[in-house]
Amino acid sequence: MKAGVGAPGRAQIPERTFRTDGWRVYPLTTGAILIFFILYATVRIFMNQWYWAPEEHYLTPLYSPCLSTSCVPGSSHFGQPMGEIPAFLPMAFITFVILAGFRGTCYYYRKAGYRSLFMAPAACAVPEPHKKYTGESKFPLVILNAHRYFFYGALVFACINIYDAVLSFHGKDGGIGMGVGTVIILINVAMLLAYTLSCHACRHIVGGRLKNFSKHPLRYRYWTFVSKLNVRHGQFAMISLVTVILTDAYIMAVAAGWITDLRIFN
Question: What is the DSSP letter of 127?
Answer without folding.
Answer: -
